[in-house]
Amino acid sequence: MAVHTFRLEHLPLDQSVHVALFRDVRNGAALRQQLLAGNPEYEYAFVDASVIVSRVHALAAVFRAVNDFNHNRLKSRNVHSEIVFCLSPNNNIAESFRRFGVTDSTTNLLAVKVSTAPSITHESVQEHLSSVVEGTPVDFADSILQETADFARIKKVYKLINRAHGKKKEAAGDLQVVQAPGNDVKDLEIAILGAMALRGAG
User: Fold this and answer.
1) What H or E segment, with its residue span, contains residue 97?
2) Mean pLDDT score, 94-123
3) 3-state secondary structure of 66
């Protein structure tokens, strides 16, 4: 399976970030239950990939969460729950988990693990995810994320109706999305990053 390991700029070199993307996931409910039970073996950011538009979108949340972890500014249980929270455009933690976290109906899953201890390595994450996620591993690539993304849902969550992705519709509140070339996806990404950044302004 494909686990991508990143070292993000301006973060300590020993805090690698391990990311895996799955399609056709069949056990979202079981994964969610492990998170709710606080099982430390399942301490990941399990994100519903249908609300992720790009690698930059996901990694921006990771960077902010790890930076807050390093400065003792976490607002949630741990750095992995904080990643889910950092995707949110508002300060409601419970709502962020409902909107961005794994749910019983999740079929496209993004799993993120931060190396907060020497025992957390590329190999250990890959081995564990391959044993606990019932789904098809795919490349963590923008092209695949844009296949799994629910653009209408993303725009609604970030309150970006009739902006960016897709051809604009004249009727107010029309959520119909027409697939559009890369420039519109980039516009949407920029708007999302702005909404995420504004959450921390207060």
Assistant:
1) helix 93-100
2) 97
3) helix
